[in-house]
Write a structure and sequence with these properties.
The protein is of the alpha/beta class and about 300 residues long. It has 7 helices and 9 strands; from the N terminus they run βαβββαβαβαβαβαβα. A 9-stranded mixed beta sheet has the order 1-9-8-7-6-4-5-3-2, with helices on both faces. Strand 2 and strand 3 form a beta hairpin.
Length: about 300
């Protein structure tokens, strides 16, 4: 892969169009579920038990403040471990979708282990709780014997923003950074002032046409400055960061979040692989291999990881 800024052109697939319509119809219900998934009483979305696929095993780890799961391939595991930070607007808990994503990350990483953390969320736990938990997980991996150059930080939405914040914190405290960063539709501007918050307001199927949505009312900020780079990495500096892959959909209100980070990072000497997918919505990669666009995105992830492992 070369350093790229790509707009994935071409016709939007029929499956993607159907899914986009469904998301727009269901988005008010989904937003309500996310807000309820981890509130003052710590309630989580009710889901059926997740079944670990054949060829993998999963270990639950309960820490003092939060829970995490380590997914490992049973055959031919490699030295890479992916620290997965889930999305959910800093108010949603880890779900089965993230467990399934962990499996796909492991496969794209040719047997990589994946540590997914159910970090503390707002409104009960505001900043810096999530960042503290991400840092704890990173240090936990080091204590297990992984080296920094064997760790890849990956996340979607708020989790992608949290991953960038984690790397900023590590860099600012003279710590070694991970080998790479993957950000799927990263939420990096909690001030919600980027151009796409206005330009895509009427077309974003998930967050659009709703000023009361999570992107405009973030409980995670608490009493802190939303421009703090550890809260909104868009306002930070990326000097010294490892290679990063950023993917985003062209219809997202968070589109400018990705552009801002990619442009700043590139200008500050970071190797950036950036792909904007035409007609795509927030975290479209969750469709996995069920539609052409999400499949292409995961193939891009696989190639990115392959290059990292070669170095």
């Amino acid at each position: 892969m070369n350093e790229v800024y790509i707009m994935k052109e071409g016709r939007v697939s029929i499956r993607a169009r159907i899914l986009r319509i469904m998301i727009a119809w269901l988005s008010p219900l989904n937003t309500a579920k996310i807000k309820k998934s981890s509130g003052e009483n710590g309630k989580k979305i009710s889901e059926t038990p997740w079944k670990c696929p054949v060829g993998f095993h999963i270990t639950g780890i309960q820490n003092k403040n939060f829970y995490m799961e380590l997914l490992e391939a049973e055959q031919n595991p490699n030295c890479l471990v992916i620290l997965q930070l889930h999305g959910g607007g800093y108010v949603g808990a880890m779900t089965n979708a993230h467990r399934s994503t962990a499996v796909l990350y492991s496969r794209m990483g040719k047997g990589a282990s994946v540590l997914t953390i159910d970090y503390r969320v707002a409104p009960k736990h505001t900043y810096p709780a999530a960042l503290d938990d991400a840092l704890y997980a990173y240090e936990w991996l080091l204590k297990q014997g992984f080296k920094e150059e064997e760790i890849l930080v990956a996340g979607d939405s708020a989790g992608a923003g949290l991953g960038l914040a984690l790397c900023m914190y590590l860099r600012d405290h003279n710590r070694k950074l991970p080998k790479g960063i993957i950000g799927m539709s990263p939420w990096t501007d909690l001030t919600a002032t980027g151009a796409s918050y206005t330009e895509n307001y009427n077309v974003d199927p998930l967050f659009g046409k709703n000023r009361n949505d999570l992107v405009f009312e973030s409980a995670y900020i608490g009493a802190n400055n939303p421009k703090d780079p550890y809260i909104s990495p868009s306002f930070g500096d990326f000097t010294g960061f490892p290679p990063m892959l950023i993917q985003v959909g062209s219809l997202e209100m968070l589109l400018s979040d990705s552009y801002t980070v990619a442009e700043k990072a590139k200008n500050q000497g970071v190797k950036v692989y950036f792909s904007e997918y035409k007609g795509m919505f927030h975290v479209f990669q969750r469709a996995m291999f069920r539609m052409p666009e999400s499949k292409a995105a995961w193939m891009e992830v696989e190639k990115f990881i392959e290059e990292l492992l070669e170095k």
